[in-house]
Specification:
This protein is about 25% helix and about 30% strand. Strand 11 and strand 12 form a beta hairpin. The longest helix is centred in the last third of the chain and has 18 residues. It is globular. The structure holds glutamine.
């Protein structure tokens, strides 16, 4: 497909700028999305890292929860990093009281799963779907995927088997933050999905 896809970054809280800069660098037309009426203008949406309980609350305050759920249901490609992956999970473990998610991915995600010693760490991750070289992955108070449903592909796990990157249809989630390391391959994969979505929409 010719032309660059128009993609949104959900701009309620979190590392919005890092995602926007990376996506612009890849040639995408980037919109910061805060209102329901902005959603139909994009061919994909990134949910940034940050604090999932805050993004959840703000999305409800701004009337975005239902529209985002509907968009996910209609096949909009979405990439969630860290807090963003928590928001894509059908079930959130260790959430704050009343915490909700958008859902869409048949996974259970556990917040802040690494404890104090490993609050933040970096590691090299083998991601077969992305090929060589390995991904330099930065984890910051990161969640892990505790349960993976039948239709979900595991893209990456830590050496001990802990699942940290998943894909289900047009939905992509990583426990870590490629956007802070200049790692572009997950975003390129997301942009491929966004191009496909636009092509299907245009018929
Ligand atoms: N611990 C955060 C949460 O629960 C996620 C941290 C992050 O996005 N880097 O939302």
């Amino acid at each position: 497909m010719a032309g660059s896809p128009r993609v949104g970054v959900l701009a309620l809280q979190g590392d919005v700028r890092e995602h926007a800069a990376l996506l612009s660098g890849l040639g995408a037309d980037v919109a910061l999305v805060r209102r329901p009426e902005e959603l139909p203008t994009v061919d994909g949406l990134v949910i940034p890292g940050g604090e999932s309980s805050v993004i959840d609350k703000l999305s409800r305050t701004f009337g975005m929860q239902r529209p985002i759920r509907d968009a996910i249901g209609s096949g909009l490609p979405v990439y969630g990093t860290c807090a963003g992956m928590i928001l894509l999970a059908d079930a959130v473990l260790d959430g704050i009281d009343g915490q909700e998610s958008f859902g869409g991915m048949d996974i259970d995600v556990r917040r802040n799963a690494f404890g104090r010693q490993n609050d933040s760490f970096e590691t090299e991750l083998d991601v077969p779907a992305l090929g060589a070289p390995p991904v330099h992955a930065t984890f910051i108070r990161a969640p892990v995927v505790d349960r993976v449903g039948a239709g979900v592909h595991v893209l990456a796990s830590l050496a001990d088997g802990t699942v940290v990157a998943v894909e289900q249809g047009a939905l992509l989630g990583t426990s870590f933050h490629p956007e802070v390391d200049g790692e572009t391959r997950f975003h390129e994969r997301f942009l491929d999905r966004a191009r496909e979505f636009r092509a299907a929409r245009e018929g």
